[in-house]
Amino acid sequence: VLRIDREKSFVDVDVKATVDSFTGRLEKYQAVVTTDPSGRIRAATFDFRFADLKTGKADRDAKMLEWLGAADAAGKFELGVLALTPSGQGQANGRLT
């Protein structure tokens, strides 16, 4: 069984735009990971609420939710391919909605 350590886990979101660049932190999320008998990850989904994404500026966070059109806006990532980079780090590709 793969378990996520909620005390030590988070997701950082790097945003680069013409007017600003920043990193947001997502500490609340729901992840479901399926492994095969050998322990290799075969499927994963990651659900979150944009209201839980904190950028360090409350005004920016509020504007983001306004731009999304709803305070309860949610996102989902579905794993497509999980691979190792040449440096040995994991790289996840998939669909973000």
Mean pLDDT: 89
How would you characterize the largest beta sheet? 4 strands, antiparallel
**Which stretches of 5+ consecutive residues score pLDDT under 50?**
none
Helix content: 10-25%
Task: Provide the fold topology.
Blueprint: E1 11-16, E2 21-26, E3 30-35, E4 41-49, E5 53-54, H1 58-68, E6 74-84, E7 90-96
Antiparallel strand pairs: 1-2, 2-5, 3-4, 4-6, 6-7
Q: Can you describe what's shown?
A:
The protein has one helix spanning 58-68; strands at 11-16, 21-26, 30-35, 41-49, 53-54, 74-84, 90-96. The chain has 97 residues and is mainly beta. The strands form two sheets. The protein has a four-stranded antiparallel sheet with strand order 3-4-6-7, with no helix packed on it. Strands 1-2-5 form a three-stranded antiparallel sheet, with no helix packed on it. The longest helix has 11 residues, at 58-68. The model has no long low-confidence stretch (mean pLDDT 89).
Keywords for this entry:
97 residues, mainly beta, four-stranded antiparallel sheet, three-stranded antiparallel sheet, 1 helix, 11% helix
What is this structure, in a nutshell?
By secondary structure, the protein is mainly beta.
